[in-house]
Amino acid sequence: MRIIVPFGAGGPADIYARVLAHHLSEQLKQTFIIENRPGCRLDHRTDAVAKSTPDGYTLLLMSNTHTTNESLVDNKPFQLMRDFVPSRRSTIRIS
Predict the structure, then answer these.
(1) What is the pLDDT of residues 22-61, one digit of tens each?
(2) Model-level pTM?
(3) Which of 2, 62, 87, 95 could link 33 by a cystine bridge, Cβ 3.0 to 4.6 Å?
(4) Contacts of 38 (CB under 8 A, 6+ apart)
């Protein structure tokens, strides 16, 4: 399984993703790979996750930037509320 982090390695999002991956690995007995995708436009990096196979093996670490961009950027290649809606079956409780 992989977690796409649309920010550079070593930053707060990367560190959070690695802690999350550690806990998920322990609970699910799966290997999680952190894939950092830094760049200038968040929507292009996020679109890669929106277009990935919806099999539950690709996760996206989102930030408040995603919700802000939803109202500020008109021509995104995805719609946040349509393309990133989790199902109830995919809910994981981390304690």
Answers:
(1) 999 999 999 999 999 887 777 777 888 888 887 888 888 8
(2) 0.74
(3) 2
(4) 6, 7, 8, 9
> Is 4 within 8 Å of 61 (Cβ atoms)?
yes
Give the single-character DSSP code of 85. Answer: P
Beta bridge partners of 60: 4
Q: What span, in angstroms and rounded, lies between the C-alpha atoms of 95 and 85?
A: 23
Classify residue 24 as left (phi > 0), alpha (psi -120 to 50) or beta: alpha
The two three-digit tokens of residue 66, written as one number: 């995603």
Strands 58-60 and 33-36: unpaired
Looking at residue 16, its pLDDT comes to: 93
**Residues in Cβ contact with 3 at an 8 Å cutoff, skipping those fewer than 6 apart:** 17, 20, 21, 32, 33, 34, 35, 59, 60, 61
Radius of gyration, CA atoms only, the chain: 13
Query: Using 50, 70 and 90 to split pLDDT, how confident is the model at 12?
Result: very high
